[in-house]
């Protein structure tokens, strides 16, 4: 795909990051964008991430080799009718939403299948908006492509190579398969995390002992419950059929677990924990999936004045940024007293090696 001109409808975290990646690898590509936030557009122009800020979806978008729909899922489908007359026969229209069925159905109803290749970069951040976008956000992240049935194979291959040139990892899937897969490995875990946190909240003691004692394993498995309520509300509404079916299967699995506990079934209980351990341990140690990996180490320290400050100073003096640091009071599932979280995997590895050099006992996650 000749990246000569690319347009963006929405310029938040994902749209901004893709625009910056294109600017990095295709510096001569003309980049234009429309966003409801004038501040985001002004910042993008100021930083040189885009060339033209558009006040509406207009003729500026004619002649694009690719147009990215990067607005919220519910908005992307509404923009399609405005784009229909602006998309040329050689243009690739794509999106970045985490639910594909609804937009594919709209594409079919509008007769736009010959140009649409759905997209889902499995990357993100706890921070949102263009101000937090970065060119390497999609680097080494899986980027799912869901071509419409009428898109020529050569156009799909051209776009796959383009995504790869941005250093992402393209995978081509049927859009219905995409929604079932992400429903299971991404949407379900978020629902489980949210419902588990709410369950603890609703059943906590009057003096809040559950909240006070919750740490370690509990906080790790419910971390994603801190995600955007609006985004996950929309995902559940847009992928409701798949999620309902997946939830029914998961509830059945929980019922089998309850039955094993009720019956004191030693073999079934052992098998459940053994098989889950083995399958999880076989998963690649990569952050390219839909749920962002944490980069953290645990460290043994003596409880004395200045202990944490000393470690923070060692890391800071070696230009290693700390995302979070704190004492683990509930260490039932953890090794080490101090938990240190980093923004990047490289920083975590460097910190572990550095602290070991200073004779600290370090446990890597």
TrEMBL record:
InterPro entries: 6-PGluconate_DH-like_C_sf, ACT-like_dom_sf, ACT_dom, NAD(P)-bd_dom_sf, PDH_C, PDH_N, Preph/Arog_dehydrog, Prephen_DH. Residues 4-291 form the Prephenate/arogenate dehydrogenase domain. It catalyses: prephenate + NAD(+) = 3-(4-hydroxyphenyl)pyruvate + CO2 + NADH. GO terms for molecular function: NAD+ binding; prephenate dehydrogenase (NAD+) activity; prephenate dehydrogenase (NADP+) activity. It holds the Pfam family PDH_N. Pathway: Amino-acid biosynthesis; L-tyrosine biosynthesis; (4-hydroxyphenyl)pyruvate from prephenate (NAD(+) route): step 1/1. Residues 296-365 form the ACT domain. The keyword Lipid metabolism does not apply. The keyword Oxidoreductase applies. One of its GO terms (biological process) is tyrosine biosynthetic process. It is an enzyme of class 1 (oxidoreductase). Keywords: Amino-acid biosynthesis, Aromatic amino acid biosynthesis, NAD, Oxidoreductase, Tyrosine biosynthesis. Its EC number is 1.3.1.12. Belongs to the prephenate/arogenate dehydrogenase family. This is Prephenate dehydrogenase.
């Amino acid at each position: 795909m000749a990246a000569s001109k690319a347009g963006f409808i929405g310029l938040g975290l994902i749209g901004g990051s893709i625009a910056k990646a294109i600017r990095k690898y295709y510096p001569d590509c003309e980049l234009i964008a429309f966003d409801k936030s004038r501040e985001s557009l002004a910042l993008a122009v100021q930083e040189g991430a885009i060339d033209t800020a558009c006040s509406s979806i207009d003729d500026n978008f004619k002649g694009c080799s690719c147009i990215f729909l990067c607005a919220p899922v519910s908005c992307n489908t509404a923009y399609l009718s405005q784009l229909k007359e602006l998309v040329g026969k050689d243009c690739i229209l794509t999106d970045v939403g985490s639910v594909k069925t609804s937009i594919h159905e709209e594409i079919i109803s509008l007769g736009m299948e010959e140009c649409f290749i759905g997209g889902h970069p499995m990357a993100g951040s706890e921070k949102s908006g263009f101000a937090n976008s970065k060119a390497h956000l999609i680097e080494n992240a899986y980027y799912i492509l869901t071509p419409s049935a009428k898109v020529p194979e050569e156009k799909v291959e051209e776009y796959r190579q383009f995504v790869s040139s941005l250093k992402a990892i393209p995978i081509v899937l049927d859009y219905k398969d995409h929604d079932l897969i992400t429903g299971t490995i991404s949407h379900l875990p978020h629902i489980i995390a949210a419902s588990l946190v709410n369950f603890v909240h609703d059943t906590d003691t009057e003096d809040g002992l559950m909240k006070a004692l919750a740490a370690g394993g509990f906080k790790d498995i419910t971390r994603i419950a801190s995600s955007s309520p609006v985004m996950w509300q929309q995902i559940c509404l847009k992928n409701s059929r798949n999620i309902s079916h997946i939830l029914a299967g998961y509830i059945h699995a929980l019922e089998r677990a309850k039955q094993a506990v009720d019956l004191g079934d030693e073999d079934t209980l052992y098998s459940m924990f053994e098989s889950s351990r083995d399958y999880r341990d076989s998963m690649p140690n990569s952050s390219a999936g839909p749920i962002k990996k944490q980069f953290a180490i645990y460290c043994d320290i003596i409880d004395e004045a200045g202990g944490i400050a000393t470690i923070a100073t060692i890391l800071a003096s070696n230009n290693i940024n700390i995302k979070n640091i704190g004492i683990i009071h509930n260490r039932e599932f953890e090794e080490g007293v101090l938990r240190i979280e980093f923004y990047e995997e490289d920083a975590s590895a460097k910190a572990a090696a550095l602290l070991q050099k200073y004779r600290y006992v370090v446990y890597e996650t």
